[in-house]
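User: I'm putting together notes for a lab meeting next week and I want to include a structural view of one of the chains we've been expressing. I don't have a solved structure, so I'd like a prediction I can at least talk through. The sequence is below, exactly as it appears in our construct file.
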Amino acid sequence: MKKLALLLLALALAGSAMATTLTPDLAAKVNASSENELIRVLITMQDQADYSQMMTATANMNKHDARQWVVNHLNQIAEISQTDVIAYLKGYEPSGKVKNMLSVSLVNLIQGLATPEVIRGLMSFPEIAEVSYDPERYMLDDTPKAEAPIQFDAPKTDNTDEIAWGVSDVHAPEVWAQGYQGAGVLVGMLDTGVNYNHLDLTTHMWNGGATYPNHGYDFVNNDNNPMDDHGHGTHTAGSVASNGAAGTQAGVAPQAIIMAIKVWNAFGSGSTGQMISGANFAVQQGADIFSMSGGIYGGGTTSDKNLFRAAYNNALAAGVIGTIAAGNEASSPAPPNAVRTPGNVPPPWLHPGQTLTGGLSCVITCGATQSNHNIASWSSRGPVTWVSISPWNDYAYNPGMGLIDPDISAPGVNIKSCTYNNNSGYTLMDGTSMATPHVAGAVALLLSKNHNLTPAQIDMYLETYAQDLGTTGKDNTYGAGLMNVLNAINAVPSGGNPNVTVTVTPTGSTVIPAGGGTLFFSISVHSNEAFTLNTQVWTQWTIPGGGTQGPFINRNVNLAAGSTIARNLQQTVAGSNPAGSYTFWGKMGTGFGGTVYASSSFPFTKSAVGAPGESWYSNNNTYGWDDEVVSSTIPQTYSLGDAYPNPFNPVTTIPFNLAQSGKTSLKVFNLKGQEVATVVSGELTAGQYQVTFNASALSSGIYLYKLDAPGYSEVKKFTLIK
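Assistant: Thanks for the context. Below is the predicted structure for the 722-residue chain, given as structure tokens.
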């Protein structure tokens, strides 16, 4: 395998040393700009991965290994070929002549801002194929209707109030009844960001660890906080995975995990480089699906089309599927230019009605239907063609049928989903933008039944089992028809439950005093699978008499192939809990109330009579995973860390170290010294902790947070901005 990888890398790097060219639009921009003006550019390298070679190299690998091989291969090519160019660009960063340069390996390119002087200097690098102009353009569908937000006065307490009509129209609730809700499937949302604090989304956002603490990345501002400042992205994310916590179940896959990837700004504008960087992030970070509800009106330049198709071919080689909006231009401009780029990129499977064949890619292009199943009047229609775009030169049109687009249709009119400016609010929007996340949610449902499905299989099931509308067969108005995820999932063979284990073991006394106490335990989860498993781990207990309480932990976990995650945690038992025999459970599966892949348990008891003078109070909190010991190393000293982010809205993380075990409290006070919240209160073991504080009940302002532990006390400030 190593010899094959090296051979393919050598083949990929064997391009001829052609001279670097500036595209005509960039040359004109450079000539018209002052020497200090920063121009957004795409620097495309000569050496590019070969799709056919990658498919040959990975033909006998499982899905996980194939993906990792492709990602490593793409990274190798970029690392080798970009070295000198990146060094050149970095030399200009201190003077401000280069800004926000990012390396992208999904297509071997560098994107960012540079002055005319720097751009001209790039022409001396033979390893560069082309430098193109990459302006920010308006990328969103011009939605014909965007109602005022519908907002609840207070969060709802159940999920039974309403299921959005579009979710029902694709028959998602019947799929949920079979136990498939998208659990463990990671969906990268390339959009205006996501309000990751919305009640319908906050419990199942991607855990990006310390590097990506806000569940994704912002390629507009080049930081790790992809908060939505427009509204479009939160709405589309809700149509994928809203779980109804605030009153309306607006998501097709309510247990899918959302990765927030901001590629468009507060005005709905972005660039080709930002969008390709977003897809690159999704592929690199393990997303199963990426969804993007927008694109370039009229198709953009030849460079735009080339780069998107190359990127999505490489994503297909990595086993990742994309759902993309067709656009809201109906047939204006006229076909073959009515479908936006990159919605015009080919799908991973060709419908039998597509008798003119050509190359494949990873894109399912989505049209929009109304509640009466008529196509929305503004939903963009194909066909499209790539006949004049080298090196593809396929899907000839007139003469020739071109490439049929869209591939499938889904609800896109009067769609209710999450709003970005109220954590329990909803809003109505129209557009193929709204149809696209319905399809992404359906893909998540299929993958939750069988995670080994390829992009071609997913597309085949969705198109084959769609409700045929319009002209018989696949057409350029509805595509294959209105998506019916129930019919599709009934045709998908089960992939079986993952081969995993979970073990819970007491690490302290299993006799809890009558007044309450702390149950110390370890939990370990292990995967025997050959792919990264996105799953959930939770704890609960059986109380005397047979009832249950919990879940206490309910955590999304990305479990790498063959890996183990272990934690030493603790659970407080309230004095108000009944005395008697309990069973403490650790479970792994699709989520609490869903399919259980593995479980483990141990017994404990709560005494009926307390010891003399015993006193204990507990809020029945669990300190685990989110509020966890993040290192087994016992610190030498106590410390209270800086909250991050700070300022925040409304969630922040507070780190602290305990040098000794003992009763510990972390409380929040206003500037008058009044206690406004208790974050932690109970017995904690020595270790390094990080806890999450949600200030949604507080008003904007400066607050103090205070840590008290045996022989130690410290106070710091943070700022809440709403």
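A couple of points you could mention at the meeting. Residues 1-18, 143-160, 611-633 have pLDDT under 50 and may be disordered. The domain at 500-623 is CATH 2.60.40.3880 (Immunoglobulin-like).

User: Perfect, that's what I needed.
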